[in-house]
Design brief:
3-stranded antiparallel sheet; 15 strands; mainly beta; 15% helix
Length: 345
């Protein structure tokens, strides 16, 4: 029995060794790829990009939301580019604090708080001035895809790749913009974090056993910097491989955010002889924040894109940390050039 087991182990070892040797030998073979350059001009990109964003998710200390958005970006030669973005939650179900407010009203029909928090909404506009906009010679990595290898075969294959000298556009920019947003929040939690008690005009504090939800809005300015890397190259290999394309437009940015205009809605409580008012300005607000993020898209008539950022969004004091991720699909783009040249006979 021991001899039989040893014999099987030796056979298995020989098979594995042979396979590893074959793979190593195959990988060490010298492979040469010849190609024809179709285009390589990072300045010849589309001017207008329209992003439909069917999904975004945001973890905000003040509120958690998920929804959809719209974004547009325009490039004016090598001078500046403009970006406008807006998003909102799908429904109150995807607006966590607003949904909690509605459920609280249903479960506690005798709740005397009359406020109905507003839906989450965010919008911003940013202009990026190109301080440095230059072209560089770099090497770009391309994954080699063969039309002969499709479906499950492609998924089970470790793809080959090649590195080709290309051009890349590098932009260092200064960003200036404005933003506005509104969101619901849990008043009890904010008051606890800030160690503050809401009082009416007579100095009477609100009942701490009440579940209170409210909303606020903030408007301000954005000042920051960015770096963009743009490639727009396509080559056609003289072999079994398909056309190789690299047209990614990638941007990383860092912004300082200032929101000097923060308004917290007043809170109204139903009492026997009318209403009791608790002014929203008793809740502490913040002015300064910051964020860092990335965005990517492709220089095609129809493509997709992505974005993510993390930072501290000023609004309510001590409740500004957030993380956001968004997907753009489809992304439509055009050069805005419908001119047709004409020649006289």
């Amino acid at each position: 029995m021991k001899r039989y087991t040893l014999f099987l182990v030796l056979i298995l070892f020989c098979c594995v060794s042979t396979q590893i040797h074959a793979q190593r030998f195959g990988r060490t073979e010298t492979k040469t790829l010849t190609y024809e350059e179709l285009y390589d001009d990072p300045y010849d990109i589309n001017k207008l990009f329209i992003h439909l964003q069917p999904i975004y998710g945001e973890l905000f200390t003040t509120n958690v939301t998920a929804g959809f958005g719209l974004q547009a970006q325009y490039y004016h030669q090598d001078v500046f580019d403009v970006m406008v973005h807006a998003r909102t939650a799908y429904h109150s179900t995807f607006d966590m604090q607003r949904d909690a407010s509605f459920k609280n009203q249903i479960e506690n029909s005798d709740n005397p708080i009359l406020n109905e928090p507003k839906a989450f909404g965010y919008m911003e506009a940013v202009v990026t001035y190109h301080v440095v906009d230059r072209e560089e010679d770099v090497e770009s990595k391309f994954v080699l895809y063969s039309k002969r290898t499709q479906g499950d075969k492609w998924a089970a294959t470790v793809p080959d790749h090649t590195v080709i000298p290309t051009k890349m556009r590098r932009i260092y920019g200064v960003r200036v913009g404005a933003l506005h947003y509104q969101t619901a929040f849990n008043v009890n939690r904010i008051l606890e974090n800030q160690d503050v008690a809401l009082e009416d005009e007579f100095g009477d504090a609100i009942d701490p056993n009440l579940s209170v939800y409210n909303d606020y809005n903030a408007s301000g300015f954005i000042l920051g910097g960015s770096i963009s890397l743009i490639k727009n190259v396509a080559v056609q290999p003289d072999s079994k491989y398909g056309t190789l394309v690299n047209d990614l437009i990638f941007t990383a940015y860092f912004d300082i955010i200032a929101t000097p205009f923060v308004t917290v809605s007043d809170i109204y409580e139903q009492i026997d002889n009318g209403e009791r008012l608790y002014t929203g300005d008793q809740i502490n607000t913040s002015i300064l924040g910051a964020r860092a993020g990335i965005e990517g898209k492709f220089n095609r008539a129809l493509a997709w894109g992505y974005g993510a950022e993390v930072g501290y969004r000023p609004g309510l004091q001590g409740s500004g940390f957030y993380m956001t991720a968004k997907i753009s699909f489809p992304v439509f783009s055009t050069k805005l050039d419908n001119r047709v040249e004409s020649f006289g006979k």
